[in-house]
Amino acid sequence: MRTISAATAAAVAWMCVVKTACGFPAFNTPNSVDAAGNACPLVSRTGLECPRLCVQDYNDCPEAIRAPVSCDDGKQLCDDGSCHASCAGVVNPCLCGMDEADGVGATAAAYKACPAYAQTVSIAHYDPSIKDQQLEEACAQAWSLEAGGNNSSSDVAEWSSDATERRVWGVCPTAQERRLSFRESYCIAFYAIVGAEMVLYLAWHAYKALREKGMPLKTVLGADDGYEDSDGGKEKVEEGRRSETEEETSEPMVLRGFDGSVAGAALYWLALASTAGWIVLLSVIVADYYGAVRGGEAYGMLANSDTSMAVFIFVWHVGGIWMLAMLALAPRLRSYFRIACPLVRARVVQVEERRAAVVLMEGAHNRLTLLASCVRTALVRRFGLDIEVEACKVQTVRVPASNSGEEESIVFIEHRCTRYVLDRRTGAFRRCSYSLGSTHRELLVRCTGLDSNEAVQRAARLGENLIRVAVPAFPLAFLREVRSYFYLYQTMCMYVWFYFNYYKMALVQLGVIVVAALIKVAIRLRSERKTKMLAERQSACRVRRDGVWGDQPLDSAELVPGDVIAVDAGSEVMCDGCVLRGEVVVDESALTGEAMPVRKLPLKDDDITFDTDTSKMHTVYAGTHVVECAVGTEILVLRTRTDTDKGRLIQRILHPARYSFVFDEQLPVALLLLLTYGGLGFALTIWLMGHDVTSWFYGVFVVSEIMSPLLPAALVVGQSVAAQRLRSQRIYCVDLPRIMLAGKVRVFCFDKTGTLTKEGLEFYAAHHIDSAAFAPCETLDVAHLPGIVELGLASCHAVAEAGGELIGNPVDVEQFRASRWQRTSCDNMDSRIAPLVLDTLVPPHNRNNDNNSHSKNYASVHAIRRFEFEHARQSMSVAVLDAQTGHVHVFVKGSFERLRRMAHLDSVPADYDAVAARWAKQGCYVLALAHRDLGHIDDLDLEAVATRIPREELEAGCNLVSLVLFRNELRTDTTAAVAELKHGDTRTVMITGDNALTAVYIARQCGLVDAGARVLLGDMERSSEKGKAATQLVWRDADTDADLECEAQAQTTMMVPDGCELAVTAAAFDYLAASGTIRDLLMDIRIFARMTPQGKAQCVRLHMERAVTAMCGDGGNDCGALRAAHVGLALSDSDASIVSPFSSGGRSVQACVVLLREGRAALATSLAGYKFLINYATTMSMLEIVQFYFSVIVPQAVWITVDSLIAVGLCIAVTQAQTARHLAPSRPTARLLGARTLASIWGQTVINYSFLFGMMALLFRQVWFRCHEFDSRDIDTSLWWLLGDNYEAEIISIVCLFQFVNGAAVYNFGHRYRRMWVTNYLLVVLYCGFMATISVLTLANPNRLGCLFRINCGDPDALVALGYARPAWHISPYNSPAGHNVLPHRFRWTLWALCVVNIVLCLAFERLVVLGPVGQLAKRWWTLRGGASVQESTQKPRLRP
To answer: Which among 2, 544, 1251, 1385 counts the fewest CB atoms within 10 Å?
Structure first.
C-alpha cells in the first residue's frame, strides 16, 4: 500500500511542475523594439486599482481616503474603514485572513483599513517586472504622500505579521495553497482498491494457468463435420447443405470449452465495475473543478489547481488505457475469467470464426496505403481482430432413448441460430441434419410420420423450428453502438473540454455525437425489427404422429424433419417439405417475388431422384402462403429452421459479410496521419507553453481539434440525408454505407424479364411444323392450328386454378389463355384412370368447324404425368390421355435450342435455326413444342407412364411440331434509364435466362447495344473432327449467322473489333469459365443469355473482381446475384428482397439511375465533409500553434462560434447539397489519400497558412502596434479566457474566422455530382450570414457585437480616449495594458481586403486547379508518365459504357 501511495504521489508530483511565466514568444521579446528598430519606451497603463492602506490610527489615513469621523443612523466605524450597523462578522482586510492562532502579532492585529480608493490610477512607464512597486508609487502620489517629506511613501511599509510602522500596504502575502498529502482517506481508499484489484487479477492469472496446464484448449470444426448416429447413419449432413457461415468462409470454426468459476465471475464483474469506476472518478474530478463536490468550493477535494490538473491527467491516462484494453479484450474477456476445459465438460463454448470480408480498393493502392494495409493486416491477423467471438451456453435436454425406455441427455449449444450437438465419441460439437430419402418412393414410405419419441429426439438435436432474433432495447443498442474506439476517443476529448472550462462547446459537440449515434441505432433497430417479424412467424397445423392425426393443432415451432402435416387454405408453411397427397396452391412471392401463385403436386411412386431445387413442382418452401389446397393434402417435412431456404435467408441478414470500401480502408490511415500530425502539434504546444501542467491541456486541445470528434458523425449525417432522399423516391436502404458504394458503380447488370421489360409475356403466335418443314407463315389464332399443336398448347403447362383465377408460370398462364381451353372435373371417369389424373381439360365450346380446327375431335384430355420446368434441362413436359381416341401423348416444351438437340432429327426443319433466330431477332420469346404419341391405352401400362417411366425415356424420340412465340415489351422508361447510365460512364450488362437472340433484340431496343453495333454471339456447337463428335465454341454474327473468321473456332481469346459487342450463352460462359479465359473477355461481353440463377450469381462475382458491380432484378430467380453484388437493387418489396441492400417498390429501372445519382452525391458529399473537417483541423491547429507562440488565446466567444455554429452548422450544411439532375460521365473519387484529395487539402492549408503568417507579419510592421504587444509574463496561462484582449488574438481570430467559413464553400464545389452550390440553400444562408457577421466585426467601430467577441472594443474609458462615445452596454474589463484592441480604420480595410483575397484564392485553387483544367492537365501528364497507382493498371480494365 505504501508503495502504491509513493508511486502515485511521485507521478502526480512530477506533473505538478511549478508554473513559470511561460507564454513568452520563443524568437522575439514583446515590446523590445519599435517598427524602426529603436528600443520601445515603456507604455502607459491606466485603470489600475490601488491596494488598501492599513494604519494603526485612522488619523494616519491620507486625505483622499480619510475614514469618516462619525457614522450616521447609529452605525459604527469598523476595522474595514466603513460604517456598519454592527461590527460583528466584519472582516478586517488588514489581517489578511489570519488571526493570532495563525501567528499574527498583537501589533499587526491593531491595523485598520483606510477606506477603499474610489478612483483608479495610471502608470506612465509601466514595467511588468516591477509592477507592484510602480503601483504603490502611483497610489502614494495620488494620495499626496510626497516623496522625501514626512508623509513619504517610504513611510508605508510592506505588510508583515509583526509590522510596527504607522502605515502598511494592504497587499497580503500569497496565501499558502492547501496541499494534498495523498494520505487522505479517499486517496488511501483508491490505493487499496487498485492495489487489491491488481493482486486479485495476478492471482487469478496464476490460478488459471495452473488449472489449464496440459489441457487441450480448442477443437476445430470443419465445414463438412456432421453428426452420425450409431444406428447406421440415420443422421447425417446432407450434401450441399452448409450453414451460412460455412458458405461464406472456407476457414473452420474454433471451439473452446470453458467451465464456470464463481471467483472468475466475481472478477469479471469487478473489471466492469472498475471501468465504470474510472468514468465516475473522472467525472468527480471535473465536478470538483467546478466546486460541485464540497459545497461550492473549487478544488475542495484536490486542494488546489495544480494538484487537480495533475490528478486529472494521471486518471485520464490510466483510465483511458484501462478502457482501451477493455474494448480490445471485450469479446474474450468473459471467457478469460472462466477455466478452460474439454468440450465434454464445458458449461460455455466459445466459438471463433473469421468473418468474411470483401475489400474494395479499386486500384486505390499507392505505396503509403500498401504499407498501411500490410501493417494493418499483420496486426489484425496477429491479434485476431477479424475473428468474431460468441460465447454459447451449453444446454442439456433429456429425451427418451431410441431403443429403450430410459432417457438420454442431449448436450448442445446454439450458434447463429443453428444447434450443435455434442458427439460424445469425438468430444466435439457438430451439426445435425436428417436425410429422409433420395427418391420419390423413399419419401412416400414416410407417409405415416414419426413416433413421438423420435420426434422429441429430433427436436432436441435440431432445436425448435423457429429462428429467434434478439432485438435489444434502445438503451442497450445505444450502449453497444458507443462501445467502440472512436467513441472512446470522443469521450476522453470531451472530458478534457469539460474540465478546462470549455463545457459550453463540449455540450454542443457531445449533442452532435449523441444525435449521430441515435440515428445509426434507430436505423439498425428498424432493420432488426423487420427481420424479427420475418423470422419469428409461427402457425399451427395438424401433425400425424404415432400413425394418427393429433386432435389439437401443433405449433409450427415443434415440427421436425419426418413429420407429416396437413395444411389448410390461408395458412403459412413454416418448413420445407414435399407434397405426399393431394394438391396445394401456394403463393411464393415472399421468397421469389413472383406474384403468381404456384400449384404443387404430390410425389409419384417412382424411383426418380428427389431434389428440392429440381423437383419444385412437388416442393413447398418455408415462408410461402397456402392459397388453396385439396382436402386431405399431406406434406412431409424435409427441413426446418436454418436448413430451409428462408432460414438461410435470415442467416444472411443476421450475419452478413463485411463490405469494406476504399473510403473505409483509407480512413484509418488518414486518422493515423492526423493523429501523427496532432502529436507533433501536441509536442510543439508543450514546448511553446512552457512544459507545465497547463500546457498538457492545450496540447490535448490541439489533438482534439486536428482529429475532430465530429468526423464519424459527419459521415453518418451525410449517409442519412442520402437515405432519406432515396426513401422519398421509394428506394429503401438497409445498409447505409452501401449508399457511398453505389457512387462508385462501374458495371450495372440487369435481369431482362420483369426488369428491363414489363412483367409477364403476351402470346403472339405459333409457327407450326409439318413433315420437317415450317408452315408458310405464323398462326395468330390457336384455333387455326393443327389439332396436335393446339392440344400441346392447351395441355403442356402447369397451370392451376385458385379462387377462379389461373395460377402458375406467367408464360404457361398466357399460353393456356390463348388456347381458350378450360380446366374441369370429370366425375364419370374410369376407375382405373381416375387416380392417375392430374388435370382434365376440355376445348372451347361453339367453335367454327373449319378444316384447320382439328380440336373438335377432342372431347376431353387428362393430364396424367407432368415434369416441372428445370433450369438445367430448360424444358418441361406432360403426358396426356386423349379420352376420345384413347391415345397417350407426350408434349415437351422448352427453349428451341434444347428441343432441337433432344428431338428426332427427321422432324427438325433444315431452316429451323434460321427461322427461330429470325423470330428471336424480332424480339420474340421463342419456345419450341415437341410431341410423341405413345399409342393406345390398351397397349400401355398407364400406371407406369404415370408414375414409373423415367422422364428421359418418356421424352425420347419426340418430333418438333411448332415454335411458340411470345412478346415481352420494354418498360416505358428503360431506354432513357439505360442511356443515362451509359452517359454516366457505367457499363450496362444483361444477364438473362432468355434466348440470346431475343436478348440481343431487347438490348438493341433499350440501347444497351448501339443500334448499328455488330453483335458476335458465342455458343457451343457440335462438330465432327476425325470422325469424332465434339462441341466447340463458335462465334457467329447475331444478324447474319456468319461464322467469325479465325484460325481456330475453339479459340477462347480474341481481339474484339471496334464497334462490336459480344454475347454468350450459358454453355459458352461455362466453357470459358472452365478454361479460365472468361476474365479476358468479360468486359467485352454485353449479354449473357440462358443463364441459370447460379450462373447469374457467378457472372456477377466475376464482374466484381474487376469493378464495383451493381445488379438489378425483380427479386425472383436472381436473389443470389442481388445478394452477391456490391450494390443489389431489387425491384420488389417481397421478403426475399431484404437480402438486397436496396429495394424499390416502384418497379422502375429509373430507380437504378436515381440510386447512382444519390450514391455519387453522397460519396462526393461525404468526401466534402471529410475535407471540410480536415481543413477545419489544419486551420485550427495553425490557429492554436500561432496563438500559443504569442501566448494569447482567441476570445471565448470566437471559440464557441467556431466549434459550434461554424464547425457543426456548416458541416451539416455541406451534407445538404442537392443531387445532380443527371449522371456525370465520371465518378467521384473515394480516395482519402488520393492525389486530388491531398492536393485539395494541402493546397488550402498552404494558402491559409501563408495568409495568416503574412497578416501577423503585416501586424508587426505597424507603428501603432509595435511597443504595444501583448506580454503575458504576469498572466496565469490556465485562465485562458483572459488572454484574448489584444491585437494578436484579434488578428488571428478575424483571419481564421474567414478561413473556417470559406472552407465550406470551397468543398461545396462539385457540380458534376451535385447541383450548383447556390442550390444548397442552407449553406448559402449560413455562408453569407457568417461572412457578413465577420465583416462587421472587422470593419465596424466598437459595438455590442464586437464587444461580445472582444474585437475592436475596449474599456469604456479607453474607448472615450480614442474618440468614441461611451458604450451604453456592459463591457468586462480588458486584460490589456492599452485597455482596448481597436484597429485603425485603414488597417481594418486592409485586413478585410486581404481576407477577401485569401477567400478568392482558395476558391480559385479548388475550382481551377483541383477540379478544373489545371487538375485535368496534371492528371493526364501523370498518367502519360506512368504515374498511376501500383495496381490501377491491372484493376481498371477498359470499360465501354
So the answer is: 2
Which pLDDT value is given to residue 102? 56
Q: Which helix (H) or strand (E) holds 1144?
A: strand 1142-1144
Tell me phi and psi for residue 590, to 5 degrees.
Answer: -65, -25
Give the β-pairing of 762-768 and 800-802: unpaired
Q: Specify the 3-state DSSP secondary structure of 1391.
A: helix
For residue 548, which phi and psi values (nearest 5 degrees)?
-130, 155
Three cell numbers written together for 97:
485572513
CA 1225 from centroid of its chain's CA atoms: 27
Q: Which helix (H) or strand (E) covers residue 114, if one does? A: none
Task: Tell me if 1014 sits within 8 A of 1036, measured CB to CB.
Answer: no
**How far is the C-alpha of 145 from the C-alpha of 143, rounded, in Å?**
6
Pairing of strands 1014-1025, 1060-1065: parallel
AA letter at 1433? S
874 dihedral zone (left: phi>0; alpha: psi -120 to 50; beta) = left
Number of helical (H) and strand (E) elements in the chain, helices listed first: 41, 49
Element at 1220 (helix H, strand E): none
**Cα separations (Å) of 166 from 93, 161, 170?**
16, 14, 12
**132, pLDDT greater than 80:** yes
Cell of 439: 427418391
pLDDT, tens only, 1182-1212: 888 888 888 888 888 898 888 888 888 888 8
Contact 35, 44 (CB under 8 A): no
| Secondary structure letter of residue 928 according to DSSP | E
Which residues neighbour 556 within 8 Å (Cβ) at sequence distance 6 or greater? 465, 466, 538, 539, 540, 541, 574, 575
Predicted local distance difference test score (pLDDT) of residue 778: 85
Question: The whole model's pTM is what?
Answer: 0.76
- Give the list of residues 6+ apart from residue 889 with CB closer than 8 angstroms, or none: 788, 791, 792, 795, 861, 879, 880, 882, 931, 932, 933, 934
CA distance 1003 to 923: 10
The strand ranges marked E within 372-526 are 387-393, 395-400, 407-415, 418-423, 428-431
Side-chain-side CA neighbours of 1009 within 13 Å: the count stands at 26
Burial of 1321-1347, coded b for 16+ CB within 10 Å and e otherwise, reads eebeebbeebbebbeebbeeebbeebb
- Mutual orientation of helices 1150-1189 and 693-706 as an angle, nearest 10°? 160
Among residues 967, 993, 969, the alpha carbon closest in space to that of 1117 is found at 993
Q: Which residues contact 602 (CB under 8 A, 6 or more apart)?
A: 579, 580, 581, 582, 583, 618
For residues 575 and 643, give the distance between their C-alpha atoms in angstroms, rounded to a whole number.
Answer: 9
Q: Is the pLDDT of residue 833 over 90?
A: no
Helix (H, G, I), strand (E, B) or coil at 198: helix
Residues 628-651: tens digit of each pLDDT? 888 888 999 999 988 888 888 788
DSSP for residue 64: G
Q: For the residues 1417-1433, what does the mean pLDDT come to?
A: 59
Q: How far is C-alpha 447 from the geometric centre of its chain's CA atoms?
A: 49
How far apart, in Å, are the Cα atoms of 268 and each of 204, 758, 799? 11, 61, 64
Closest CA to 334 of 272, 279, 394, 278: 272
Task: Evaluate whether 678 touches 706 at the Cβ level (below 8 Å).
Answer: yes
- Grid cell 491559409 is found at 1248
* Of 1276 and 298, more confident: 298
pLDDT at 594: 59
Q: Which long-range contacts (CB under 8 A, 24 or more apart) does 905-913 make?
A: 906/772, 906/959, 907/769, 907/772, 907/958, 907/959, 907/960, 907/961, 908/772, 908/960, 909/769, 909/772, 909/773, 909/774, 909/960, 910/772, 911/774, 912/774, 912/960, 913/1041
Q: What is the DSSP letter of 39?
A: B
Segment holding 785, helix H or strand E: none
